[in-house]
């Protein structure tokens, strides 16, 4: 079968419209993307599992339907391998689950299927999502399409690479401390980390835990908005999803933007600060800019403690029974939480509350808060962790994520967009942060800078 590689350059929104109008068949679109995977994934390792036959069957059903099933009818997507897919291997990036085939879809997957999306496969992630380099004992490292010697970022690196390389137009990800934002920055794509609860997680063991959320990666803002629109909506078993997200509206006139390179506390490399300053100069063409940050004193220690406690609670039993089969990164993460007391945890929650209120205060004076989407540029895949920035040693292996995990701490939605770059420069993205529930405001502003400033994806070299 002859495939048309140009179909891999179209975004999900364009493909969905063309398929709905009968201008393209879902089968042709799926075959083009499967061909791109066959051509490139041996080098890039974005996918753990590719379900070619399942995707072909689903495309056939889409093409035979009398009307579109939903807004993503016939469009190929990829799912991060931390998330359950019925009948399709889900490893969680761990050799312990190499043969695990879930019986049911996670809700976010079920909603994508209901909207007509076709699951091409599962994208790579570090074991249980814990790791700076997207690799595990089953697959990887997932290589950056702009320089295969470099990391794609963790932990949604497989999804970021799949989108950047045109293997899929849209991919699902999850974000705990920066796991859609860092790979988006490294791979020159856009991402959305939605307000916790906007995309429900009814199986989450800790129902009120808002540190981890679902998200999406794409090459256009329109695709991110489309994906969120089909996956949002309350679910009775997720207490965070019952909150009202109404009242989100775009602001009239020239927006006011607070910008910060580091939230006053995050370690950020000098070359990143320079690129961020250039991005802020460009933003000044479309917005009023002021250097300002919430009070984030103690945020790094607070996130470290909360994260460690959650990981120890969720995976501690595996450390007791299957230690030899776990990667060193996972072992370190679990052990970091084993020594914490209830008082430690509650003191961290107290400080988290103060930081949240400081963020809220900032948004009485600004429409958006903008910061770098990564503290460093991609590094070689052979280097497992960022242990120092500009010669200064970091206290823990997760501190390089402070510029993103500070936002996770307070649960505000974040749109990540690529910035302009020179021909020989590595990709670099910025975080655009808004108050909870204000994703529509983010998308509207994202489209403005995408179209006006050229803050948009550029294809990696052939």
Q: Which strand order spans the largest sheet, edge to edge or round the barrel?
A: 1-3-2-6-8-7-14-15-11-9-10
Structural class: alpha/beta
Radius of gyration: 21 Å
Number of strands: 15
N to C succession of SSEs: HHEHEHEEEHEHEEHEHEHHHEEEHEEH
Please count the helical segments: 13
Low-confidence stretches: none
Coarse morphology: globular
Major pleated sheet: 11 strands, mixed
What would you say this structure looks like, in words?
With 462 residues, the chain is of the alpha/beta class. It is built from 13 helices and 15 strands. It has helices at 12-20, 26-44, 52-64, 107-114, 157-164, 181-187, 221-231, 270-283, 299-322, 328-338, 342-362, 402-410, 439-452, and strands spanning 47-50, 76-80, 118-123, 143-144, 147-151, 170-175, 190-193, 213-218, 256-259, 288-291, 368-372, 388-389, 392-393, 414-418, 429-433. It has an eleven-stranded mixed beta sheet, sandwiched between helices. Helix 7 (221-231) packs antiparallel against helix 13 (439-452) and helix 9 crosses helix 11. The protein is globular, with a radius of gyration of 21 Å. 55% of the residues are buried. The model has no long low-confidence stretch (mean pLDDT 96).
């Amino acid at each position: 079968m002859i495939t048309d590689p140009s179909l891999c350059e179209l975004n999900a929104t364009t493909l969905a419209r063309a398929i709905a109008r009968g201008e393209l068949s879902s089968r042709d679109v799926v075959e083009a993307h499967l061909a791109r995977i066959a051509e490139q994934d041996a080098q890039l390792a974005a996918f753990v599992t590719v379900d070619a036959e399942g995707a072909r069957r689903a495309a056939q059903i889409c093409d035979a339907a009398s009307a579109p099933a939903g807004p993503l009818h016939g469009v190929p997507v990829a799912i991060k391998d931390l998330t359950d897919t019925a009948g399709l291997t889900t490893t969680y990036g761990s050799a312990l689950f190499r043969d695990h085939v879930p019986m049911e879809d996670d809700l976010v997957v079920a909603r994508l299927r209901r909207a007509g999306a076709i699951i091409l496969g599962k994208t790579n992630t570090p074991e249980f999502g814990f790791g700076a380099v997207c690799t595990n004992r089953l697959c990887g490292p997932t290589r950056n399409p702009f320089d295969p010697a470099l990391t794609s970022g963790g932990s949604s690196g497989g999804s970021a690479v799949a989108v950047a390389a045109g293997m899929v137009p849209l991919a699902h990800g999850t974000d705990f401390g920066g796991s859609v934002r860092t790979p988006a920055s490294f791979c020159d794509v856009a991402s959305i980390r939605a307000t916790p609860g906007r995309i429900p997680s009814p199986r989450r063991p800790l129902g009120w835990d808002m540190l981890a959320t679902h998200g999406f990666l794409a090459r256009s803002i329109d695709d991110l908005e489309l994906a969120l629109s089909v996956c949002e909506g309350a679910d009775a078993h997720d207490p965070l999803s019952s909150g009202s997200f109404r009242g989100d509206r775009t602001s009239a006139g020239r927006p006011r933007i607070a910008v910060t390179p580091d939230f006053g506390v995050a370690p950020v490399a000098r070359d990143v600060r320079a690129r961020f300053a250039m991005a802020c100069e460009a933003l000044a063409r479309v917005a009023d800019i002021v250097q300002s940050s919430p009070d984030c004193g103690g945020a790094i220690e607070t996130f470290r403690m909360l994260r460690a406690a959650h990981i120890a609670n969720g995976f501690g039993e595996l450390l007791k029974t299957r230690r030899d089969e776990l990667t060193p990164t996972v072992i370190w993460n679990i052990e970091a939480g084993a020594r914490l007391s209830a008082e430690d945890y509650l003191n961290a929650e107290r400080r988290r509350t103060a930081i949240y209120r400081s963020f809220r205060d900032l948004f009485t004076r600004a429409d958006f808060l903008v910061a770098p989407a990564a503290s460093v540029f991609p590094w070689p895949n052979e280097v497992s962790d960022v242990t120092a920035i500009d010669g200064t040693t970091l206290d823990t292996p997760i501190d390089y994520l402070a510029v993103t995990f500070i936002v996770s701490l307070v649960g505000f939605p974040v749109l990540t967009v690529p910035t302009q770059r020179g021909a020989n420069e590595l990709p670099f993205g910025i975080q655009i942060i808004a108050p909870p529930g204000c994703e529509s405001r983010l998308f509207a502003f994202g489209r403005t800078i995408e179209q006006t400033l050229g803050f948009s994806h550029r294809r990696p070299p052939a």
